[in-house]
Amino acid sequence: MKKILLSLTCVLLVFSLTACNQKKQEQSKTADTNATTSKPVQELTFNLSGEPKSIDPQLVIGIPGGIVTNNTFEGLTRKGKNGKVIFAGATSVDVSADKTVYTFHLRKDAKWSDGKSVTASDYRYSWIRGVDPKTGAKHSNQYFYIKGTKAFFEGKAPRDDIGIKALDDYTLQVTLVAPTPYFLSLTATDIFMPVRKDVVEKKPDTWATNPNIVVSNGPFVLSSYKLNSNIVLKPNPYYWDKANVKLKKVTFVMIVNDETALVAYDNNEVNIVTELPLQEIAKRKIEDPTYHVFPKVGTYYYDLNMQKPPLNNINVRKALTLAINKKLLVEKVAKGGQTIATGFVPVGPNDSTGKSFRHTAGAYGIPIQGNIKEAQEDLAKAGYPGGKGFPVMEVLYNTNKGHKAIAEAIQAMWKTNLGINVTLKNQEWAVFLNTRIHHNFQITRDGWIGDYNDAMTMLDLFTSFSPYNYFQWDSPKYDALIHKAKTTEGTTRDKAMYDAEKLLEAQYITIPIYYYNQPSLVKANIKGWSCDNFAIWYLGNAYISDK
Asked: Which of 110, 169, 248, 368 has the most CB atoms around its CB within 10 Å?
């Protein structure tokens, strides 16, 4: 009897365990099915590496603000892959035989985020707002290609003389001063993006950061803005291409410290970072499949303030330039695969014959490893033999370990090679920008990423009327060469630009160190994103993949 009961107990136990296992297997299959069929959350976090100076299209300065506006607003055109210009707010353009009149046909389904139509009058208002000196746009000179804008900016002509006309709601006619081969590229930049008069006038100084006021015409619209913290975007429900906007939320964070940002990336708190610690680049390039590097039309350089003695002495400027070993700085300090600068215009733009501007212009006799003997002779000519009597100067840079490392290396080179002392000072980005704008420095780190793929995007900075002429150089001869380059075509234009850069380098106004590239980390499941040759990202087609 005991054996029978024991046997029955064993049978029941086996049956129970079998049933339990079957139930677990069914639950597991259900869980696997749910995991397979569930869609990833379409939310993306992007590190801007700093607080934007502004996200008002006409007032943007710097890459952080440019990235935000490129995803919230949209101009007549947009930069596509490899810098190719594609139509966006416009569907087509007619260009006159003399290449000075552009007639844009606007997209009739383009809407603001409140549902109202984007009209030609919105573009006219925005562009005139940008060139109006009362607005204070730092890129206002970019409008000077348009007839009447420069005279209006200088107070010499009324706004009615400006060559921008809204022929009807969906036709915008623009008359240029002279043929401008890169004008379509200009219309893709933030300063040429439209804003709406009734919205701007509600709060002229803060409308762009107020989610209760702002409207935009790009794939996203502002949802919230927390100073020094984050910017959150949501989809624009009226965007003409909303069917291809997959992300439901984009959060731009402002982590300034590269190492902190990298930790956040590795912890999956951030999906995209565009600034990496110098010591990590070589390692990530080899070991991290999410590492990407993009070319940039841009130059990293130092400004020498010509109104601050002894920098008003050309021999001092030349000595400081020749005492720097750029090869050492790029290969041993920056270590990001950058290209050593041999002139101010970077590799990328071509002249009218298709030849590389940089390769054709050459290096102007400035060795990439410097020339210590000649630098010492120049310093002696300036009255400071062996550095004797040379005042202590200050080098300013914005807070960043990479900028600090380069500044320290240059500081050591000037001490060793010239016998002079400089101190180093760092400032947070917004303060740093303000300091440069007001010329409150002797020597400062600088960098410029072009807006379009032409040498003029770099050379235009050095005119006497440029808002980015931080070095306070005033050369009528240089201004005349740039004017000639803007009003002529072909090889005549090329020669004017080559002569302009030659004059610039001969005066040692600035010290070009390297040409930028863009090392970035992007999570493998982020698809559809793009970054152009000007470090501006577009997320309108981005999405989170389940693979």
From this structure: 110
- Tell me the pLDDT tens digit for each residue of 182-232: 999 999 999 999 999 999 999 999 999 999 999 999 999 999 999 999 999
Cα–Cα distance for residue pair 372/154, rounded to 1 Å: 45
Chain centroid to CA 317: how far?
28
Residue range 296-518 in CATH 3.10.105.10: yes
DSSP lists the bridge partners of residue 519 as: 293
Q: And the tokens for 270?
A: 């951030």
Contact 138, 61 (CB under 8 A): yes
Helices 314-322 + 401-418 axis angle, to 10: 110
Q: Provide CB contacts within 8 A for 303, sequence distance 6+.
A: 436, 441, 443, 444, 445, 446, 470, 471, 509, 510
Q: Which of 437, 524, 508, 526 is nearest to 61 (CA)?
A: 437
Buried b (16+ CB within 10 A) or exposed e, 512-537: bbbbbbbbbbbbeebeebbbbbbbbb
What pLDDT shows up at residue 34? 43
- DSSP letters along 54-69, please? --SGGG--SHHHHHHH
φ/ψ of residue 99, rounded to 5: 65, 25
Sign of CA dihedral 375, 409, 411, 501: positive
CATH superfamily of 47-255+523-544: Dipeptide-binding Protein; Domain 1 (3.90.76.10)
Which tens digits make up the pLDDT trace of 400-431?
A: 888 999 999 999 999 999 999 999 999 998 89
Cβ atoms of 273 and 262 within 8 Å: the answer is yes
Checking if the pLDDT of 31 tops 70, the result is no
pLDDT band at 278 (very low <50, low <70, confident <90, very high): confident
Domain ranges of the chain: 47-255+523-544, 296-518
What is the rounded distance in angstroms from the CA atom of residue 75 to the CA atom of residue 110? 11
User: 527 by DSSP, 3-state: which?
Assistant: strand
Q: What whole-number distance in Å separates Cα of residue 186 and Cα of residue 180?
A: 10
- Identify the bridge partners of residue 45 per DSSP, sorted by sequence position: 251
Mean pLDDT of the chain: 92
Calpha distance 441→393 (Å, rounded): 9
